[in-house]
Amino acid sequence: MTAILASLAVLVGGATLSALLWRMPRVALLVAMFSISCASVLCLAAGLPCLLQDGDAPVTTVHWPMPLGEARLALDGLSAWFLVTIALVSVAVAIYSWAYLQAEIGRAPVPSLGAFLCVLVAALILVVTADDAALFLFAWELMMLGSFFLILFHHRQEEVRRAAWVYLIANHLGTALFVLPLFGMLVAAAGTTNLHAFRAALQGADPGASTVLFLLGLLGFGTKAGLMPMHVWLPVAHPAAPSPVSALLSGVVIKAGIYGLLRLLGWLPSLPTGCAVVMLLFAMVSGVLGVLYALAQHDIKRLLAYHSVENIGIIGLGIGMGMLGQTLGLPALVALGYGAALLHVLNHALFKGLLFLSAGAVIHATGTGDIERLGGLSRRTPVNAALFLVAAISICGLPPFNGFVSEWILYGSLFGGAMNTSRWSAGMAAMAAMSLALMGGLALACFAKVFSVVFLGQPRDATLPAHPTPRAMCVGMMIPALLCIGIGVLPGVFVPLTAAGVGAVSGLNGGEFARSTQSTLAPATQLSMLAAVLLAGVAALAITRRTLLRRNLAEPAPAGATWGCGFSWPSARMQYSASSFAWPLIQSLRHLIWPDRKLAAPTGTFAGHAQLETHTPDMAEHDFFAPLLGGVSRAFRMVRTVSWTGEPALESEPGVAPGRVGPLRTLATGMVAALRQGRIHMYMAFLVLTLLVVFCIESLSSHGSEAGAAGSATQTVDGVSK
Question: For residues 381 and 550, which has the higher predicted lDDT (pLDDT)?
């Protein structure tokens, strides 16, 4: 735990220095990135031994200065797994950001971005190591605020400001409506804010109460994770944020929601089968619709954001199968389900972080993320093209990369559930397996579209500049790329590391985990090795051919020299666009996502102008949340009766006669106007008064508790004396 405390101290110091050095942006950026790198190494030093030893680290307690509990930090298998994930993504982002943000110096507040990156990483570390409810909620709020200010980096753009507010409002609604009531019920049941006491307090709990707690956690933590339909902030915030921030958001911030849900499942007793079914349904909807919406996107970062929704669905499938295994008493299903979910948490953090960093390199080189304007970048940025290809193959679940391993284990749990459970559960597992296969096929089509349109062919917009990817950005991207390859080629080394996390959630010991996963893991290892050998052979042949051609030819053969139906060289207009590539699939599944297609067809003998536009609105955003929030906005406008001068607004409002204000609204006007004086000393007085009230309440409650304890002791003494 000393390493974790040291990492937090380094991050706090880095954030402070970066903010103080705002007049020297390069120095401030260097300090922040160095602090994040050092903290990541310290977190790896703390987390890896815990995973290797399959044990819990001692609890570290720091006295909290306020009467809200203790600042307790603890590290078990689940915390260690997420801590390692945070560290691996953070160090890659730190190295990458040093080169990526150089172009922003003088145009945007780079020192503040470095400071808030340190704050965000520190908040993530606190979230996964907190052992006190008050500390967890404090870190949860700090994580949301840090992300909010990072998304606001280009705050002069209206769409960026809107995206940041959508993120903040959506996540605060999820916290206020679901996470806070959840922890309120947990603290009331346990009588303490100590998280380790929740498991014992909930043993023997009523199934109905456990179901309510699970649903609160699913909706609250699912909002943070981007589980559909609570995902509306995710495709808005990711494109607006700088690419290193997008990599952190998708790689580790949304995983905080998965951590919260898994931690809750570790506290709850065995849940009814219906809870596992609900989890599987949410996961299937999120996965299938997420990849369909991704296929229809034209902006590369928005496309990747929807793929995060899809992969959260894949993780949800593993969690659902683990829950089903716990309910039915099947250890193999528990090990495979939760093991696949935890492994995919790490895998998705690596390949999605790499994809966002690579997309950032594309935007850095060309100035745009519009797929329809790009093309031919593999010749100008070959290293970035190769790294993007590694991540694309990984996310498609193909060997010998890491996405294949976690999805293979997940298929093992789904097939096991289909064959070894009751008819209803078997049907759900079979549906989940079919949905996972559909996700894989659509993801393959989507990334075939992205890679071919962006990196192959000819540039579709000749005016776009393109320069090679800076070395520091390449080094930062190589870290997750090498890990994607390593996990895929050596799954037998990495999969057993999830045993400690699975045990923290389900109580399954390491021996049972090894026995349950051995038969599924062996074929995956063989297939990955075979695929690695085949890929190495193909790469060797390609390099040999290229070398021989360069030696034997004085000059390269002219492209397009062979007969090409009258064209020696295809123009950019002759290529497939991203929309035309994806439209047949979108059209065949149009009843799921309802795409909008506008065609201005050519007319007349000599055809003139023609135009085709395709757009796929998000149904959850446009058909549910937009009307809902519109109604809330109208309700707030009805009660907004105070201007900055404190006078009641007399404009006409629905249901209120012009110029008339009711008595309740008049009272509200007076109360609010009393606080809105615009004077600092009034606000300070109000703050001090609030603190006094809090301390008085705490003192009275403490005095009552001491009096009750003294009374109990007196009765005991009297009883003994008699």
Answer: 381
